Amino acid sequence: MSTAIVRIVSELRSIVAAWRREGLRIAVVPTMGALHEGHLSLVRAALAKADRVIVTLFVNPRQFNNAADLAAYPRTEHDDAAKLATVGAHILYAPNAADMYPQGFATTVSVGGVSEGLCGTFRPGHFDGVATVVTKLLLQTGADLAFFGEKDFQQLQVVRQLVRDLDIPIEIIAGPTVREADGLAMSSRNARLSLAERNRAPRLAEILVQTARRLSSGESVQRALSLGRDAILAVGFSKVEYLELRADSDLAPLHTLDRPARLLVAAWLGQTRLIDNFQVPLPRAAALHQTAA
Ligand SMILES: Nc1ncnc2c1ncn2[C@@H]1O[C@H](COP(=O)(O)OP(=O)(O)OP(=O)(O)O)[C@@H](O)[C@H]1O
Ligand SMILES: CC(C)(CO)[C@@H](O)C(=O)[O-]
Ligand code: BAL
User: Fold this and answer.
1) Is the CB of 177 under 6 A from ligand 2?
2) Residues of the chain with pLDDT under 70
3) N or C, which terminus of the chain has less Cβ within 10 Å?
4) Does the model's ipTM exceed the 0.90 cut?
5) Burial class of residue 136 (count of CB atoms within 10 Å of its CB; 0-12, 13-18, 19+)
6) What does the DSSP 8-state code read for residue 291?
7) Atom of ligand 2 at shortest range from CA of 130
8) From the annotation, which residues make up the binding site for (R)-pantoate?
9) Which ligand is nearest to the CA of 33?
10) What pLDDT, in 10s, does the model give residues 252-292?
């Protein structure tokens, strides 16, 4: 099966309307392309729950707070379409920036609360860009279900909040973080790592797991986080933007482990910014080795 590429929203809407007349259930998986097993796991999960799956591919300029990051973002649409055909996605919706943001576009969706802190502090404007484009993509596709990865845990919470607040009739479903065999969370940006950096990168997940274990065995939050930061720097990361413990449900800051929590990190390895997170207590002993199916 091949995956049809659609660029124009009116064309997408006609296809979706025809599916609706047949009573089909529709899912959307928003992406910025350069697809890897993390994305494909979401597509497979969507195919298991819906009759038709739309994958969106749009490198959204509004969510990049750094021009160099936008310029370096990988663009591999041809390969992405081939991967989607293998998995069985029905449509690749890849709109142009000029159609998404025509002259005179003047609306921003800004989500309070969960957008603040963590990546919200270090990527100013990022979550406004994400919330604006996700709102558009959900409304353009009119899907019943939308799939997002836990790798971008704060983004997932931002999307849940905006869907609730704006009464968008869609169910948000989270997929677990897919990891390389050595534990590194898959990310399109991993391709920017040099060989030496790539060898070092899995230490980030290892240190998170170690920190999660320390917290579960009664270490104070302050000390566990401080040891974690030191360890990340000691293995060669140049900067830790944040290493924080937050409530799993709403990302409220936690000073004690008194409810299900999430340990979240963002750190720089050379020129590459990596993020990762784990639930605390860890859901199961082999959490680090949850690799692609
Ligand atoms: N390793 C992963 N496991 C599960 N889901 C993932 C993974 N990586 C990305 N996703 C999810 O795929 C969707 C699209 O993400 P995106 O296209 O930004 O990919 P990415 O690899 O995260 O790229 P980036 O370099 O921008 O971080 C998001 O919902 C994201 O959370
Ligand atoms: C959700 C998203 C596709 C919005 O541009 C992007 O932030 C991403 O790829 O995670
Ligand atoms: N994966 C989230 C999109 C971004 O980093 O801009």
Assistant:
1) no
2) 285-293
3) C
4) yes
5) buried
6) B
7) 4
8) 63, 155
9) 1
10) 999 999 999 999 999 999 999 999 999 999 987 555 655 44
